[in-house]
Amino acid sequence: MQAYKTVLIFPIDDSVEFLRPIVDFLLKTFENIIQFEPAYGKYLEIDDEIQLVIFIGHGTSSVLCGNLLQDGEKYKFLDIINASVLFADLSIMLLSCRSIDFIKNVRHNVALKSFLGFGDMPTDWNHIAYLRDLDSEYLKGFEEEHLEYYKNILVKAFINGLTLYSINYNFRAMYLGMQQVINAAMSEVIIDMHWDKSIKNYLVDLLLELKTDMKYL
After folding, report:
1. What domain of life is recorded for the organism (predicted)?
2. How does DSSP assign 139-200, residue by residue?
3. Which helix (H) or strand (E) is 51 found in, with range?
4. pTM (2 decimals)?
């Protein structure tokens, strides 16, 4: 299906295993794709045939995280400098927290052919606990079923976006495909879900942030 080579980066980390269906979809749909595990001591090489890099995992505005280390910390796989060297003149798709800020920092150093990035996406309780340390009212009353709903929508949105992207390899198509799923989920939360109003408001806010923080070129 695909005329050019894609590199898919996906770490071994239980907290991102819920994203595995996206990985499976990519490996099934994109014929010329290479999967890379970002482990300590392994180095990613980008050859001239590679045009698209997809990263799925944890990240910040300054680093993309790899596998868990023995001490439980996340391996700092790519910082801005190394990413600038690897990603120059490529298309990149980063499904990670604060990835749009990471991309902005990379673009200060090099040009990118195209990109898709995201804002903050709280998908585990450690992340939520960190944000609650900053604001004790953050997602107050949020429970596992609410977090799972958000995570499931994230996966569905990304797969729907990738389905449209694979037709003509256009990030706008992917962006619109993700928006379709997110908009439908916001309506479902408001109309169909039997949760407290405060929980509905939290989920709508999270989905709205997911939609508005997503940027592409």
Report:
1. Bacteria
2. TTT--HHHHHHHHHHHHHHHHHHHHHHHHH--HHHHHHHHHHHHHHHHHHHHHT----HHHH
3. strand 50-56
4. 0.96
